[in-house]
Amino acid sequence: MRNRILEISEVPARLRIERRQLVIESEPRSERIPLEDVAVLVVAHPQVSYTQAVLAELAASGGTFVTCDRSRMPIGILLPLDGNSIQNERFRHQLELSKPRQKQAWKQIIKAKVHMQATLLEIRLQTDAGLRPLISQIRSGDPSNIEGRAARKYWTALFGSDFRRDRDAADHNRLLNYGYAILRAATARAIVAAGLHPSLGLHHHNKYNAYCLADDLMEPYRPIVDRAVAELVDDYDETPEMNQEVRACLLRSLLSSFLISQQQRSLFNALSRTASSLVSIIQGNSDQLELPEDFAHAPA
Q1: What is the mean pLDDT of residues 50-57?
Q2: How far apart are CA 172 and CA 226, in angstroms?
Q3: Per the annotation, does 147 bind a ligand?
Q4: What pLDDT does residue 251 have?
Q5: Which residues pair with 14 in a beta bridge?
Q6: Is 290 annotated as a binding residue?
Q7: pLDDT tens digit string along 215-247?
């Protein structure tokens, strides 16, 4: 199934592999989970030990391993190295993708992102805060930075005029950072499974960033995290602490469904569709990315 996100953050544990199952030994009980069900494994507690077999077997089954720092924020990702049987050919095509086609793909991504942002505002506030008129202004490569203009309207509407998107701030941004980090890992996993290299971006280009393409393709999916954070803020008088309950809520948000190509899909399936559609563009078989069109439903 490969649709579970597991986080180990609250108690010490020992991880091992037995009969193609991930065994999590902790107090007061142990748990066994088929490896094929694990999409992302997040290890946040400093007293978690695991064998080499855990990392090797998880990667072999297509899962992603995320490790966290002392504050339980994600800092590292382990992805499968051999994600597709013809990945060498796809790497070559990826490198050869022309700039005009990269810019056209980026235009589609930003249009989908602003559309999803507007949809979220309409769900929560019954207004798009002026975002929808901006969508028609997005051109190839977004040279006018409509993405940035939309972001200013979006964050103000979603969290108030005092909010600024700042990765180092200790407010709502901390919750967004956590959710985005797990979303990034899931996106990188879909990219590798499609036979593409996650560092070869369409728009993001940074020699110190190993996940430029993941940062590109995750853009229209970010509002699923934004929605979860906004709902958490609704439930508290101030920004909640990053405790187990809050992290669990953020992880559950990533089990939500999207409408993509007019079909309801899980996040993991939708990301796979997006990555596969990029392969079609790279191979010259299509000009269209498959991107989220609407929220479907949140998990119970």
Answers
A1: 94
A2: 10
A3: yes
A4: 94
A5: 25, 49
A6: no
A7: 999 999 999 999 999 999 988 867 788 888 999
